[in-house]
Amino acid sequence: MCKGPGLFSDIGKKAKDLLTKDYSSDQKFSVYTFSDAGVALTSTAVKKGGLSTGDVAALYKYKNTLFDVKVDTESNISTTLTICEIIPSTKTIASLKFPEYNAGKLEVQYFHHHATFTTALAFNKSPAVHVSATIGTPTIAFGAEAGYDTTSGNFTKYTVGISVTKPDSYASIILGDKGDSIKASCVHHLDQAKKSAAVGEIFRRFSTNENTFTVGGLYVIDHLTVAKAKVNNYGKLGALLQHEVIPKTLLTMSGEFDTKALDKNAKFGFSIALKP
Could you list the residue ranges that cross the membrane (predicted)? Predict the structure, then answer.
């Protein structure tokens, strides 16, 4: 695929990942293995509250085709087929879930040096069409997306956004929820090696006059250990420590605290991922 402005879903993703990725209050254990035939297998067990769930996933890549299938403990089977370059500069993604036959979706992505387009059709009782477009360069991009319900004839969503990317910083503004909310975020690396970063995000919902301000940071302690933290204006604090205990085995410990009611709303979680 050629280098361009990226997909609309990439706008704001860097800040979102820094503030949410790997944070969890659940207990999770994952094991990754690879066979000689090129099949990647993932087994995951999660304990959330008093409930335990698990799934097994297989990923196989052949030339420009990627096949992914997942089976969980509730007998759900999810399959995703991704094919690149059926038409030059395109990616086609088809997904289907059993026994929920109405959860299928077909998506086509088109990449250009100065624009990207996506079209997705959801196969359910009320078929919905989702489209998005982004124009610009890898440095600055403008984008919009919309969802349309073919049964009711109404727009289910429309969103616009802009992002600016520099070598040491990234900023974005997204007007979403049909114009009812706005989110502005910024990520800045504090050193040339990008071992530390600071992030800030402001979210405002106009209908309720609600404002949420979140700040966070990441620090690479050494080549084995990463620490992250975040806090918002409501006093909710999150912290995370990820360490490679043995080669290719990651232990992630995270916690969420309500500083205004610490004794009532403290949640802790951890995850272990074994990767060959």
Answer: none
Q: b vs e for 196-214, b when ≥16 Cβ sit within 10 Å of the residue's Cβ?
A: ebbbbbbbeeeeeeeeeeb
For 257, residues 6+ apart whose C-beta sits below 8 A from its C-beta are 236, 237, 238, 239, 265, 266, 267
- Indicate the burial class of 121 (C-beta count within 10 angstroms; 0-12, 13-18, 19 or more): middle
Cα gap 198→187, rounded to integer Å? 6
The share of the chain scoring above pLDDT 70, in percent, equals 94
Q: What is the overall mean pLDDT for the chain?
A: 89
Report residue 215 CA to chain centroid gap.
19
41 confidence band (pLDDT: 50, 70, 90): confident
Give residue 253's pLDDT band: very low, low, confident or very high (50, 70, 90).
Answer: confident
Its pTM stands at 0.86
SS3 state of residue 178: helix
What integer is the mean pLDDT of 216-224?
94
Q: Does pLDDT of 102 surpass 80?
A: no
- Give the whole-angstrom CA distance, residue 250 versus residue 48: 20
Q: Which residues of 155-167 are buried (b: 16+ CB within 10 A; e: fewer)?
A: eeeebbbbbebee
Specify the DSSP class assigned to residue 153: T
Alpha carbons 70 and 53: distance in angstroms, whole number: 13
37's tokens:
């035939």
- Sorted by sequence, the CB contacts under 8 Å of residue 20 that are 6+ apart come out as none
